[in-house]
Task: inverse folding
C-alpha cells in the first residue's frame, strides 16, 4: 500500500512538472518583449486635433500603426498577414484610417484614436495590376465624397462611412490601368487618367455619385510610356516615355488630352536614362539623371524648365501647403557624418524656410525617405518636423535641429541570429558600482521576507517587483557565473548587425555592413547569414571572439559575396573582404586553427568550394581531412552528395579553391514528389547519452549521427494551399537520408496529407507538423531512429571483457542497421515554426517550442511526442514517465512561454544553452522580439531568485540562540540537581 | 513434352515454396524482394548471386510463368553502370524485373533479378588502382525503369576498399516509387572496417544482394472514441497490477527489521559478557553509597 501511495505521489509530482507556468509577479523578470513595425513605406500625419499628435504609418512588414510624434511610442498597431501587403494609406473623414491591401482587393477602415476596425470591404479583383487608393481631402466633413480605389482591373467607389461599394467600373476588357484619379474639390466629376498597354492615354470623366462615364477621350502615344508618372497639378501629369529619354507632359483640362514632349537632352547636357522620383511637388517634378537630381518646373502650358539641381544623393518629401497658397517640401542630403535638412518653398527654391544640420550615426547609412509635417510654433510662425527613414530601416523624427526620437525598425526583419558570450569581468572593474550597499541588500531581503510571509503592503509589493527587475545585476556587461548574461547577435535584412543584451534587450552595439572596396556595383551588401568565427577559450582574457557575417551584393544568386569579420565585444569590423565568387552555401567545419578560428567552406554556383580563412595553416589542417570532407546540395527535386576532388589550381591560381565530384544522387520523381522542407541537426548540439534505458531494463542505442538530413516531399498538386486538393491527390513523404553515402535510412509516406511541413531535428528524433486532409486536422508525427548494430552490447560481461564494439570507429560505409519508431498525434493549432530547447550538457529533458499561428510560443514536453506512448502503460512504464496515449497533443494555456505577449509576425525561434544545465535561452523574432529563459525541468540546480536568504539566516540565528539558551538552562538545572 | 514442362513447373513451385518457408527473417520492411531463381537452396533470400551462365538460362522459364496470367504485367530491363574513380560510366550488369500495373494505376516492380558482368582485365586493373588509392567505386541506375534513363541517373558510391572479402561482396537497396528509382544504397553487406585496409579479393567474382524497397505507409493516427476513454476510467479493476515478489514489495520494511535484528543480536552477544562487568560495577557503587 505504501508503495502505491509513494508511486501515486511520484506520478503526481512528475505531472506537476508539466503544469509549468509563471506566477503573475514573475512576468518580466527574465523575459523582455520589444515591439517594432518595420521599414516605413507611407506616413500620413494627423494633426487636426491639437494635443494628441500622431502619425499613421504603413510598413514593408505589412503593419499599419499609429505612432506618438512626441516619443515615438506605438499607440496602436495591426499586423496584417504576410500576403496582405499594404498598397496605400489615407485618412478619411478626419477619423478613419483607410488602408488598401492585397493588390487593391481589401479596403479597411480603422478608427483613428484607438485603432479598432470600423469596416472592411473586399473588392472584386480579376487580374494582377497596380493598385491605387485615392482618398478625398475633404474639408467639409458633412459631405461624403467616395473613396476611389483601383485594383485588379476594376475601379471602385466606396463610401467612407460604412465601406459600402457605391459603384464599380469594369476595365478588365480593355486592359486599362488607372494611373491617376483627380477629384477636383467642389465638383462631382472625377477625372480618371490611365494607359492602355502603356501606349494610349485615356481620360474618363466619371460622375462620382452614380459612376456613369460622362466623357471619354483617348489619344495614342507612338513611343509608349515607361510607367513612371508624376502628377504636378490638378490637370497635368508628367510621364517618361519607354526609352526614358523624353518627358511627356499630359494635360487633360476639361477632359481634353494634350501631349507635350521635352527631350531630357534639352534640359541637361549629359543626358542618360532618366528616372522620375516619387515625390509629389506642386507644379514641379524631380527627375534623376546620371545621379543628379533635377527640379523641373512645369509651366502653365506644359513647358518644362530646370530650376535647380542637386549633385549628391538627396531624399525628398512630398510638398505640403503652408500659409498663403504656397507649398513647401523638405530635402535631406548627407555631408560627411552630418545630414542637412532643408525646407524650401516650391515656387521660390531660393527661399529656404528651414535649414538644419544634424549629426548622424554613420551606422545608419543614407536617408531613404523623408516625410514632412508642419506645425505652428509658439511664436505663431511655421515650424517643420521631418520623419526620416534611414538605410538601416530605422525611423527618426527630426525637429528643431535634433533627433527627437528614433526607432530601430531594422530589428523587425531579422534574418539570422547567433549568441555570444560577454567579456569576462576583470578584477577591479566597476562591478562594485552595480552592487548594493549592505544596508540596501538587507532592506531588500527584509522586503522579500515580508512578501513571502504575506505581510507586505501594496507599496511594498511594488517595491519588491521593482527590486526584482533591477536585481542581481542582470544588465551588467560582464559574463556571469550561470551564463544568464549573453549577447544576442541579430543580423537584419538591410545588413545591420545588432548585439542585444539578454538582461533587458537593449542594443549594446550595432554595425552596418559596408562594402569592402566601395565599388560602384556594390554599395551596400545585404546580410545573409551569421557564423561563429572565433571563440577563444585558451586566450579568453586577452582575445575577443568574433563572428563572420556573410553578405551578398544584390539579390541575384550569382552575385558576388562579401565576408565581414566583426569583434563581438566592441562591434567593430576587424576586416572585410570581397571574395569574388558567389555564395550558395556556407559550411562551418569541425576544425579550428591555432588561433581558434573556425574553418569554413563556401560553395559557389560554379560548383567550387573555397576554404576560409585563407592561411597556410588552415590549408594544412584541411588537407589532413581532405578525404573525409563531404557535402550535399538540395535542388528542386534532386539531392546530390559531393566529395572533395582536388585543387582547382588548373583553372585559377587560387590554392584555397577546390573542385568536387558527385558521389550520390537521390532523384525524386518530378511528377509525384517535390521537396518542401529539408532540415539537419544543429551542428553544436550536445547529446548527453547515447543509450536509452527502457522500463524493462532493456537498452536502446540512439542513432546519433551528424550526417542525417530530414527531407519532406509532397505531390506537386499538394504544394498549394491547404484544402486546394482532395486527399487522394496529395501525399506527403518524409525521408531520413545519410548525407555521406546517400542512403535512405527511413522513408514513410502519409497518404492524404499536405504541407506546409514544419520540423525540428534533435538527437535521434524528428518531430514534424503537417495537415491531414482526411481528418481535417493538423498532425504532428515523431520519428525516433535507433541503432541496431550495437544492440548486443547489453551484456555486462561483454563490457567488462572488452568484447563490445562501442569504441570501434563508426563509418558511414558500413551498412547501417537501424530501426525507427514513429507515432502521430493530432495537434489543434497551425504552426509557424518549431524549435527545441538546448542545454549545456543535454541532460535536462527537452521541450518543443511551437510558434503557433497566434504568434505565441507554446512549450510542449518532448514526453508528449514519445513514440512509445501506449494506451495503457504498465506500472513500470508509468514510473519511467510514459504518458498514456491520447490522440491529441494537449495545449495547456499555462505552457505559453510568451504569457500575455504576442511576437507579431513570428518567423523564428532560437535557443542557446546557458552555463547552468537546467536553463536555456529562448529568443524569438518576427516583427517583434521576445526573449526569455526557460528551465524545462525547473531549476533543479540553483536556488530561485526570490529565495529568501534572510529567512534562512534568521532561522539559523534563532536555532543557534535556542541551542544556547537550552544549554544554559540545562547547565543550571544540572547544577541545582547536584547541590540538592 | 508438356508433362515435362509441368513437372519442371511443379518442381520450381516446390522450390520457391521451400524458399518462402525458410525465409522468415529480415524481410520485415521489404515489400518485394527480387531473387534469382537459380539457386533454390540458397539461404540468403533476397540474393541474386554471381553471374554464372546456367542461372541465366533458367531465368526465362520463370519469367514465362509469371507473365502468362495477367496482361498488365510487362517486363523491364535496365542496366547498371559503373565508374572507377573519375572515369566514365560503362555497363556493369543488367537488372530485369516485371512491372506490375495495379488496377488503380499504380505500378510496382516485382521479381527483380540481377546479372552482374564479371570484371574484364582492364577493369580489374582499374579496380586495383582504386583499392590502392582508397578511391570511390561508383555505380548508377536510370531514375525511371520504363523510360531509361529517365530524368537523371541515380548515383551511389562506395570506397572501393569496403567491397573485397573473399570475393567482391556488394549490397544494393533500391528505393522505388512506382516505376521510378529514387535512390540506391550501395555498399558491402556488412560492416566496413575503419581504417580501411588494402586487401585484394581472392576471387574476382561478384556476390550481389539486392533489395527493392518502396515506401511504407504511415499508420493512421489513432482516434479514441468516448467509449475507450470511458472504459479507461474504470480500468482500475480491469487490469490488476502485476504481482511482485515478496522482496520487491516489502524491502523497505525488511531492511530496517534486519537492522533491528542485527542490532539485537550484537547486543545479546554483548549481554553475555556484561553480567560480570555489571556486577563489578554494582560492587563499586556500594562503597560510594556508604561513604555518603
Result:
Amino acid at each position: 500500500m505504501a508503495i502505491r501511495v509513494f508511486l501515486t505521489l511520484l506520478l503526481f509530482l512528475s505531472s506537476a512538472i508539466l503544469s509549468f507556468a509563471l506566477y503573475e509577479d514573475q512576468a518580466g523578470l527574465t523575459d523582455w518583449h520589444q515591439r517594432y513595425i518595420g521599414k516605413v513605406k507611407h506616413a500620413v500625419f494627423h494633426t487636426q486635433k491639437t494635443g494628441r499628435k500622431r502619425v499613421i504609418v504603413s510598413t514593408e512588414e505589412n503593419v499599419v500603426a499609429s505612432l506618438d510624434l512626441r516619443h515615438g511610442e506605438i499607440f496602436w498597431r495591426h499586423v496584417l498577414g504576410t500576403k496582405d501587403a499594404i498598397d496605400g494609406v489615407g485618412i478619411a473623414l478626419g477619423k478613419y484610417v483607410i488602408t488598401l491591401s492585397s493588390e487593391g482587393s481589401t479596403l479597411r477602415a480603422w478608427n483613428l484614436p484607438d485603432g479598432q476596425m470600423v469596416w472592411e470591404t473586399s473588392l472584386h479583383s480579376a487580374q494582377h495590376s497596380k493598385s491605387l487608393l485615392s482618398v478625398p481631402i475633404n474639408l467639409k466633413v458633412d459631405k461624403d465624397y467616395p473613396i476611389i480605389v483601383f485594383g485588379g482591373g476594376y475601379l471602385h467607389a466606396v463610401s467612407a462611412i460604412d465601406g459600402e461599394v457605391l459603384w464599380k467600373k469594369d476595365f478588365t476588357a480593355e486592359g486599362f490601368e488607372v494611373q491617376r484619379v483627380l477629384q477636383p474639390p467642389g465638383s462631382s466629376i472625377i477625372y480618371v487618367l490611365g494607359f492602355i498597354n502603356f501606349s494610349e492615354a485615356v481620360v474618363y470623366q466619371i460622375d462620382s455619385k452614380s459612376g456613369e462615364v460622362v466623357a471619354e477621350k483617348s489619344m495614342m502615344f507612338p513611343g509608349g510610356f515607361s510607367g513612371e508618372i508624376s502628377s504636378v497639378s490638378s490637370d497635368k501629369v508628367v510621364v517618361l516615355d519607354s526609352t526614358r529619354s523624353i518627358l511627356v507632359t499630359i494635360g487633360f483640362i476639361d477632359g481634353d488630352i494634350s501631349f507635350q514632349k521635352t527631350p531630357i537632352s534639352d534640359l541637361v547636357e549629359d543626358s542618360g536614362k532618366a528616372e522620375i522620383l516619387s515625390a509629389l511637388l506642386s507644379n514641379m517634378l524631380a527627375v534623376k539623371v546620371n545621379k543628379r537630381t533635377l527640379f523641373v518646373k512645369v509651366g502653365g502650358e506644359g513647358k518644362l524648365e530646370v530650376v535647380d539641381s542637386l549633385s549628391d544623393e538627396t531624399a525628398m518629401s512630398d510638398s505640403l501647403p503652408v500659409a498663403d497658397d504656397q507649398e513647401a517640401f523638405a530635402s535631406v542630403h548627407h555631408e560627411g557624418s552630418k545630414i542637412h535638412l532643408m525646407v524650401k518653398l516650391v515656387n521660390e527654391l531660393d527661399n529656404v524656410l528651414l535649414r538644419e544640420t544634424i549629426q548622424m550615426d554613420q551606422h545608419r547609412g543614407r536617408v531613404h525617405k523623408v516625410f514632412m509635417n508642419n506645425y505652428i510654433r509658439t511664436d505663431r510662425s511655421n515650424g517643420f518636423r521631418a520623419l526620416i527613414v534611414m538605410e538601416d530601416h530605422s525611423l527618426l523624427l527630426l525637429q528643431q535641429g535634433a533627433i527627437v526620437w528614433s526607432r530601430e525598425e531594422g530589428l523587425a526583419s531579422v534574418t539570422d541570429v547567433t549568441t555570444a558570450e560577454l567579456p569576462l569581468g576583470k578584477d577591479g572593474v566597476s562591478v562594485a558600482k552595480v552592487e548594493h550597499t549592505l544596508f540596501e541588500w538587507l532592506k531588500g531581503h527584509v522586503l522579500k521576507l515580508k512578501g513571502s510571509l504575506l505581510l507586505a503592503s501594496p507599496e511594498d509589493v511594488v517595491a519588491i517587483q521593482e527590486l526584482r527587475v533591477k536585481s542581481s545585476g542582470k544588465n551588467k556587461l560582464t559574463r556571469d557565473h550561470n551564463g544568464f548574461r549573453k549577447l544576442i547577435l541579430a543580423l537584419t535584412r538591410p545588413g545591420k548587425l545588432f548585439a542585444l543584451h539578454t538582461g533587458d534587450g537593449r542594443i549594446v552595439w550595432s554595425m552596418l555592413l559596408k562594402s569592402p572596396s566601395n565599388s560602384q556595383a556594390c554599395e551596400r551588401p545585404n546580410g545573409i547569414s551569421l557564423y561563429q568565427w572565433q571563440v577563444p577559450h585558451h586566450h579568453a582574457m586577452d582575445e575577443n571572439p568574433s563572428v563572420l557575417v556573410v553578405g551578398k551584393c544584390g539579390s541575384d544568386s550569382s552575385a558576388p559575396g562579401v565576408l565581414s569579420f566583426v569583434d563581438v565585444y566592441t562591434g567593430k569590423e576587424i576586416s572585410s573582404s570581397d571574395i569574388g565568387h558567389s555564395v550558395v552555401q556556407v559550411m562551418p567545419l569541425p576544425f579550428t586553427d591555432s588561433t581558434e578560428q573556425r574553418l569554413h567552406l563556401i560553395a559557389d554556383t560554379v560548383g567550387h568550394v573555397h576554404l576560409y580563412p585563407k592561411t597556410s595553416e588552415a590549408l594544412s589542417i584541411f588537407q589532413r581531412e581532405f578525404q573525409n570532407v563531404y557535402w550535399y546540395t538540395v535542388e528542386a527535386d534532386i539531392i546530390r552528395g559531393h566529395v572533395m576532388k582536388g585543387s582547382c589550381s588548373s583553372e585559377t591560381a587560387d590554392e584555397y579553391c577546390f573542385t568536387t565530384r558527385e558521389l550520390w544522387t537521390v532523384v525524386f520523381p518530378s511528377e509525384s514528389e517535390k521537396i518542401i522542407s529539408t532540415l539537419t541537426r544543429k551542428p553544436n548540439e550536445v547529446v548527453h547519452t547515447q543509450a536509452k534505458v527502457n522500463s524493462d531494463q532493456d537498452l536502446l542505442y540512439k542513432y546519433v549521427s551528424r550526417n542525417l538530413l530530414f527531407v519532406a516531399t509532397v505531390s506537386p498538386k499538394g504544394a498549394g494551399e491547404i484544402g486546394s486538393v482532395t486527399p487522394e491527390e496529395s501525399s506527403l513523404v518524409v525521408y531520413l537520408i545519410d548525407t555521406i553515402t546517400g542512403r535512405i535510412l527511413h522513408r514513410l509516406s502519409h497518404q492524404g496529407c499536405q504541407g506546409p511541413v514544419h520540423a525540428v531535428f534533435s538527437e535521434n528524433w524528428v518531430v514534424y507538423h503537417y495537415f491531414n486532409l482526411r481528418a481535417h486536422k493538423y498532425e504532428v508525427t515523431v520519428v525516433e531512429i535507433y541503432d541496431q548494430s550495437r544492440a548486443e552490447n547489453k551484456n555486462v560481461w561483454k563490457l567488462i571483457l572488452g568484447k563490445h564494439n562501442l569504441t570501434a570507429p563508426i563509418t558511414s560505409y558500413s551498412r547501417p542497421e537501424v530501426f525507427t519508431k514513429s507515432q502521430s498525434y493530432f495537434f489543434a493549432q497551425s504552426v509557424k515554426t518549431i524549435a527545441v530547447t538546448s542545454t549545456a550538457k543535454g541532460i535536462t529533458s527537452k521541450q518543443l517550442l511551437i510558434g503557433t499561428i497566434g504568434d505565441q510560443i507554446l512549450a510542449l514536453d518532448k514526453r508528449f511526442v514519445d513514440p512509445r506512448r501506449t494506451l495503457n502503460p504498465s506500472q513500470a512504464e508509468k514510473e519511467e514517465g510514459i504518458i498514456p496515449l491520447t490522440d491529441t497533443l494537449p495545449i495547456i494555456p499555462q505552457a505559453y512561454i510568451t504569457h500575455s505577449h504576442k511576437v507579431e509576425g513570428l518567423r523564428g525561434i532560437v535557443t542557446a544553452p546557458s552555463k547552468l544545465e537546467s536553463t536555456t535561452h529562448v529568443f524569438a523574432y518576427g516583427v517583434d522580439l521576445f526573449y526569455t529563459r526557460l528551465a524545462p525541468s525547473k531549476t533543479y540546480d540553483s536556488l530561485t531568485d526570490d529565495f529568501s536568504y534572510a529567512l534562512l539566516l534568521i532561522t539559523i540565528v534563532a536555532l543557534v540562540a535556542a541551542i544556547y539558551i537550552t544549554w544554559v538552562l540545562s547547565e543550571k538545572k544540572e547544577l541545582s540537581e547536584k547541590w540538592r | 513434352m508438356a508433362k515435362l514442362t509441368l513437372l519442371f513447373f511443379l518442381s520450381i513451385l516446390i522450390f520457391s515454396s521451400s524458399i518462402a518457408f525458410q525465409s522468415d527473417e529480415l524481410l520485415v520492411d521489404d515489400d518485394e524482394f527480387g531473387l534469382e531463381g537459380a539457386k533454390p537452396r540458397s539461404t540468403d533470400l533476397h540474393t541474386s548471386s554471381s553471374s554464372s551462365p546456367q542461372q541465366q538460362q533458367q531465368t526465362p522459364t520463370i519469367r514465362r510463368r509469371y507473365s502468362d496470367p495477367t496482361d498488365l504485367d510487362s517486363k523491364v530491363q535496365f542496366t547498371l553502370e559503373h565508374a572507377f574513380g573519375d572515369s566514365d560510366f560503362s555497363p556493369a550488369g543488367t537488372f530485369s524485373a516485371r512491372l506490375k500495373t495495379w488496377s488503380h494505376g499504380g505500378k510496382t516492380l516485382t521479381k527483380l533479378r540481377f546479372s552482374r558482368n564479371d570484371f574484364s582485365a582492364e577493369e580489374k586493373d582499374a579496380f586495383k588502382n582504386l583499392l590502392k588509392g582508397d578511391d570511390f567505386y561508383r555505380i548508377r541506375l536510370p531514375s525511371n525503369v520504363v523510360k531509361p534513363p529517365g530524368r537523371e541517373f541515380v548515383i551511389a558510391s562506395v570506397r572501393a576498399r569496403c567491397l573485397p572479402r573473399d570475393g567482391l561482396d556488394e549490397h544494393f537497396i533500391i528505393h522505388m516509387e512506382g516505376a521510378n528509382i529514387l535512390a540506391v544504397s550501395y555498399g558491402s553487406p556488412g560492416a566496413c572496417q575503419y581504417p580501411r585496409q588494402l586487401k585484394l579479393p581472392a576471387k574476382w567474382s561478384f556476390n550481389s544482394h539486392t533489395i527493392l524497397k518502396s515506401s511504407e505507409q504511415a499508420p493512421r493516427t489513432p482516434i479514441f472514441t468516448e467509449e475507450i476513454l470511458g472504459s479507461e476510467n474504470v480500468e482500475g479493476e480491469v487490469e490488476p497490477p502485476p504481482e511482485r515478489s515478496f522482496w520487491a514489495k516489502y524491502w523497505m520494511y525488511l531492511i530496517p527489521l534486519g537492522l533491528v535484528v542485527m542490532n539485537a543480536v550484537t547486543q545479546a552477544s554483548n549481554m553475555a559478557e556484561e553480567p560480570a562487568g555489571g556486577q563489578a560495577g554494582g560492587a563499586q557503587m556500594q562503597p560510594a553509597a556508604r561513604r555518603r
In short: Confidence is low (pLDDT under 50) at residues 10-71, 226-238, 276-292 of chain B. Chain B touches chain A through 56 residues (CB under 8 Å). The CA atoms of residues 143 and 181 of chain B lie 5 Å apart.
